[in-house]
Structure formats: structure tokens, C-alpha cells
Amino acid sequence: MGKNKNRSRPFTNHGGTLSTSSQQQQSGKKASSNPKGGSKFHPKVDVSLLVDRVEEYMESHDKTSINYNSSEELMPVVTYLRKSYEKEYKSIPLLEFKDICAGAIEKMFGDDSDMTSSSSEDENAMIDEATRVKNLTKLKDMIKNEKNSMNQQLQNVYKEQQTTITPSTNSSSHAGEASSQASSNTSSEDSLKRKRSTSQVNEPQTQENKSTTPNHSNQETNGTTTNSNNNSTVAPPNKKTKPSSGQPSDKEKRTKIIVETPNIRFSDLGGIDNILQDIRELIEYPILHPEIYTSLGVDPPRGILLHGPPGSGKTMLANAIAGELQIPFLKVSAPEIVSGMSGESEAKIRHLFRDAVANAPSIVFIDEIDAILSKRDNASKEMEKRIVAQLLTCMDDLTLDKTNGKAVIVIGATNRPDSLDNALRRAGRFDREISLGIPDEKARMQILKILTRKLKLEGGHEVFDFQNIAHNTPGYVGADLKALVNESAVVAIHRIFGNIVFGNETKEATPKTLTPEEEVKRRSIISETLRNMKEPLSEEQLASLSITFEDFEKAIKRVQPSAKREGFATVPNVTWDDIGALEEVRDELRLTIMEPIKRPEKYKKVGLDVPAGVLLYGPPGCGKTLLAKAISNDSGANFISIKGPELLNKYVGESERAVRQVFSRAAASSPCVIFFDEMDALCPKRDNESSSQSSERVVNQLLTEMDGLESRGNVFVIAATNRPDMIDPAMLRPGRLDKLLYVKLPNEKERIQVLQTIARKTPMSPNVNLDEIAKLCENFSGADLSALVREAATCCLKESIQNNTDNLIVTREHFKVALRKVHPSVSEKDLKIYDKIANSLRTSRNHIVMDDEPKKNPHSTSSK
Length: 864
Fold this sequence. Notes:
Elements: E1 9-14, E2 17-24, H1 47-60, E3 65-67, H2 71-84, H3 86-89, H4 94-108, H5 129-141, H6 150-161, H7 171-193, E4 219-221, E5 224-226, E6 259-260, H8 276-288, H9 290-296, E7 303-307, H10 314-325, E8 329-333, H11 334-337, H12 344-358, E9 362-367, H13 382-396, E10 408-414, E11 432-435, H14 441-451, H15 466-471, H16 478-502, H17 516-532, H18 539-543, H19 549-558, H20 562-565, H21 583-598, H22 600-605, E12 613-617, H23 624-635, E13 638-643, H24 654-668, E14 672-677, H25 679-682, H26 693-707, E15 715-721, E16 739-742, H27 748-758, H28 770-775, H29 782-803, H30 812-821, H31 828-843
Parallel strand pairs: 7-10, 7-11, 8-9, 9-10, 12-15, 12-16, 13-14, 14-15
Antiparallel strand pairs: 1-2, 2-3, 4-5, 6-8
Helix pairs in contact: 1-4, 2-4, 8-9, 12-13, 14-16, 16-17, 16-19, 21-23, 24-26, 27-29, 29-30
């Protein structure tokens, strides 16, 4: 810091707070020797030198202002000077040196400064005395507004002083002026609040070419005088301005709805052939030709409801409809509409429909609509009821006369249509409900062909076996099939990397024959090798790569369908080869269930209605459950297995709801077979003294659902029981369980077939004669025969362990031991009772005669 007294210092001064803000020369007047109002400087102190040292302190500590009336700001300066120049200032008392420093700082930026010797050169920049007095008066008036916030005070300063802005082409200079002005006025307010004022206020005098500081006095710029009373003002920095009356406030601001036209077409979807006609009637005709409806004097459909299990393609179908018609598409998720502020949710709905009308013809798609439009009877908050009422009102206003003759269609999507408010599901709102259930085998094949269009398949798409994959993926929805395609690609990549590391292996040497430890080791070697490979694969290596059918087979084992994840079984893996004998029952089941699914047109031609259900009854362990699984597998239908007690719940209404859910899921998965095991526990006689009101409600609900099967399409019911006499007679009438099939114990010939089926995987010695064993198994059920083979295999294993040998061959001696341990589970007396039940059901379904003691249980333990 030099000591040239003629140099200029950047500053702005109001009262006692001093801040550096612009370069300006000091006036030529002499400084008063009594700046502190009577206290003179110490005779040993060189004031000019002290001023220079204060400036050094400000520069080294990055200070732009010092309030010499504040001890907190002044004492650090005093301490710094006494410590840095101890020899000169140590002898002066602390309080006296503090006053000297305060006077020096005031002198440093005071009007009566003797630090400038060339005042004659700057006379044109002197402040007009009248303007100075006027500015002081206005600043003092600000003290009256001390209760206002600091931002309000700053705004008043700018408005009252009407600061003149120097014309400039650089917009950034204005920002600098506003910032500097704010700093200056802040300093002046601090000074006035402390009621410390000086007789002279030194204002900025000369506007330099590079300066951005506004002046309160008349200024000369490029030869033109600009008066401070001009109307040009500078807005305070970071001050939020109040929106004009034409702009919406923050409360009125809404979530912007994106209007788009999707690129998806119907050709990008598979398995929708059965619903395309409904889509054309309900959406395409009103959108493309609204004049037809106007001419006929009717209103077109206003909405459709898409429902189905997750991943069935509801959202994609809505996008494809808008993409096919090339019209605006307004998509919103129901939870986005809900707001915490009262009235905002309803406002969002109104804005959504206004945008739709403005872009008509258009489609409004509300995803997960059940989240906001559930039944009002169950609503826990008034807001939920208001949302439902608002959407009903907006849908009622979508008539052609209110939409300028252009149709607006509303599409809703949900997984739970039964939870929607009933007012939405009437005609005039959601006119039609379209179910996107679990696709059948044909639809799955179409979806797979579309999903693999861009994949490189072995042999090409023309020869790839899509039908086999579709047959092996029952219960898969569109999302599951997409996951399957992605997983097959992952399997293929792993196989390709394995071939690169270990060489081109044959399919017989693939890891399917490896133990889990060997497979883990193999994967580790592949990963380590690939990490060390820096070069990409060559075109020759990539040319021979493709996804094979075996890759899909492995991927099927890894991908679990949505229906199975939610607790519902899909097509079982039991085939007729797993069942021995029962030829008569097989034929009846094929005619009752399999043929109506595979050839429904033949039944319609002869005027036959599809039987609603089949009851399998007979002794335990005769294969009733296996029969139900095998017929489901053979027909390709989905399979839902329900144990009777599983649906029972102690809470009122829960059991009935569980029954409805089963049939609803079956309808969405049609063709589907519902198998009720232990039907006597789920549907007991209602006139029984021991029956309760809850069990009666379950029976009533089940009877109601069975009556509604005609409207549910290909939903078949198979029930199994050991006690048909305990089932409510209303369930056994034609139209419900109208096919009653008696599954009796196998005869000798059938026992041989059952033994051959069960023993397929058991290594047998040549001395084992299954015909001989079958003769010894009189009255054995299928479960008893299975227990016999298992016991013989156990005897063989025990003998091998005791002798420490690897000879695991089941011999005739092992079966002899097993026959001494396993006995038939159905006695001769029980068998006669079941025969009587069968004869009684053939004559009358309402009155089943068992024996002379009707209350007696025909078997002590009944378990299949």
C-alpha cells in the first residue's frame, strides 16, 4: 500500500459505516483536527501513516467496510495495529488509541480530507449541497419504517431516491449497479439506526468509465447530464416480485400434462385379435367419424375400462390405440392427481379434461384408476369422494356439443375393477369393460414372434419352434414373455462366453451335467477370462452367434410367471403317462373338459352347452387329484388348485371375498380349470345342525359363482371329495356339478398298469414280477401301491448302507418285506359303503343312502 496522498480510494460512506465500492478521488478540503467531536489526535501519531496502515489491514483481511461505532468491528483493527506496530502504539492507552483509530477511519473517508492535493482538477464532480441535504432528509425518513423487513427498507430506498442509471449497452453493468447500491444503502441504514450522523456526507463524485456504481447526484456521461430524478430505477437483487394479475400464483400452478402421440401400433401387440373389434366400435369410429353420431342424434361412447392382471399389456394397448389413430394422447397416473391441498386434486382433473377438449379429438388415459376412484362407501376421507364426483362430472361433459363436435375418449386401466365406484361403470361413462386376461397358447405364440423380431435366432424366425415355447409357458402374460426373451439372451451370452473360454463344446458336454460346485467354478473361470480380454470379438466370431431353442428352455426354468408369484398355480406338469388305469374316467373327462376347450365349435353346432363342473368322488388315494391335473395339462388350460379349508376365514365376509377372487382370477386366466379339493369341507349341507352362518354364506357365494359360469367363458370346475353325502345337494344339481364320476379302486389289471407307471424310475431286478405283486395287492389304492414301491426301495437302500455296497437294485425279496409292512387303506366294509353311495347318486342326487347307519363315518381316516 503506497503513501501517495493523491491516489483515489474506492469507497461509499454514509454516516459511520464505511464501505469500499468504487474508485473516487478525495476532496481537497482540509480534515478537521477534531473528528471525534472534541478529542484531538495524539501528538505522537502520524495520522496519514495510520490511515495507510488501516488500508493495509482492510486489504489483507478482505474488508470492504468498517463501522467505527461498533466495538466488534473496531477492536480487531486496534489489536492488529498495536501488535504490528508495537513500538509506536504500545505507549498509548488502549481506549485513547481506540478513539484515535476511529477518528483516523472517519478522517480516511471524511469530506474534509487533506489527502488530495489536486482538488482543483475535480471541481466538476463536487456534490451539489441542495441534493446532499435532500438525500439526507430522505434517508432520515427511513428510520420511521424500522418495523419493516430489511428487504422492504431496501426497496423503499430505491423507490424514493430514484437512482439514475448510466446508459450502457452492457446489461451486466446494471446488475453491478444494483448490487453496489444495495451495499451503500445498507451501510447508511446501520449508521442512521445508531443515530450517529456527521455534518458532511461525502457522495460519489465522478463516474469512471469502468464503474458500475449508481450515483445519487447529477452525473455527466458522454457530455450529457442525467438528473437523479429520472424515472429509471433498479430492482433490488434477489427480490421476488409479485406476479401480475394475469399470471397464476403458486397455488394455482398445476402439474403440466404432456400431450403426445405414441409411436406404438397394433402390429406391435400380439394376442389382441379378439378385442380389436370392440376397440374399433368404441374408439375408432367416434374419433374418425363423429358426424355419424351427430347425424343419428346419439352421443358416442365416452370411455372404456381395461382390466386384467399386471403385465397383461393394458398401458401398451392404450398407447397403441392413440398411435394407430395418430391423435393426441394425454397420459396421467392416478396417484399424480392426488394432492395434499384441499381442492387441488379436483382442479387437476378439470385442467386435464380442459386440455383434452382443447386438443380434441384426443384420448385421456388414466392408469391405476382404482387408486382415486374407489367406492365412495369405503372412502375414509372426504377428498376421495370429491375426486370421484369431479371425474364423474367431467366425463358427463364430454358430449359432442360441448367438445366442438370432436370426440374425447377416456381410457381407464386397473387390476381391480370390482373396487371402482359403481357410478363409473354405468353406461355413458365407461361404456364397455375390456378384459386383458392371461393369453392362451395361440396368443403367446404371437407375442413371442413380435418380441423376437429383432433377435438373431438359430435357423431364422421361419423355422424356429415358437409353438413349443408357447406350449411350455402357461400362465405367462406379456411382461413375463418379455422377461423370458431377455433371459434367453442372457443364457445365450453365457453359453457363448463359455465356448470362447473352453472351446466349442458339444451340447452333451454343456454345464447341465455338471454338479453345482463345478458350475460355480466354471462361471468363475469364464468371468476371470473375460475380464482379461481387452479386444472386442471379431466379426467372424459374432457371425455364428445366435439364440437357440435350448436357451429358451433354460430360461423358462428361471422365469416365474406372474400368476405363480401371486399364489395361483399354472398348468401342472402331470400327464396321462403319470397315471395308470382309470380309462373310463379319462374318457369322461376328455369329453367334458378337454374337447370343449380344443373344439368348442363342434359343441355349438349340435347345440350342447358346456358342462359347468365335474365331481370326482371315491375312496381316498385313488388318484382324483392326479386326474384333475392331467386333464388340465392335456387341454392346455390354466390350473388353479384350491383346498377347501384355504378359503375359510374367521372374519365376516372374507371367505366370500376369497371365493369371488378365485373365480375372478379364473375368468382372467381362461381357459382355466378350478380344482376344489376336499369339497365337503367348503360346501357342507346347510340343513346340518352343526353348520354355522359363516359356512352357509360361503355355500351361497359358491352357488352364486357356479351359476355365473355361463358368462365367464371357458372356466371349468372340478371338485374332489371322499364324502359326497356331506356336500350340499344344491351343488350337485345339473348346471353346477352335473358330471359325477366315481373313481373306484383299481382292479388287478389296473394295478399292474399303476405299478408299471410308479416303478419307471426305480431300478428293478429281473426277478421282480409286477404281475405277481399286483395279485397280492387286493383292495390297494393307487396311493397304497405307491407306498409299496417306496417301501421296497427303502429296504434296498437300507441293505446297501448296512453292507457298505453300491448295489442299489430292488429285488423280489425287498417287495416281500414291503408287503408285510404296507396294507390297504380301504377295508372291504368301506368299499361296500362307497359302492352304495355310487348307486344312490345314479338314482337320486338329493338323497344319498350309505347304509343302515347313515351317521357312521365310512372310514376312520380319509386322506388322499
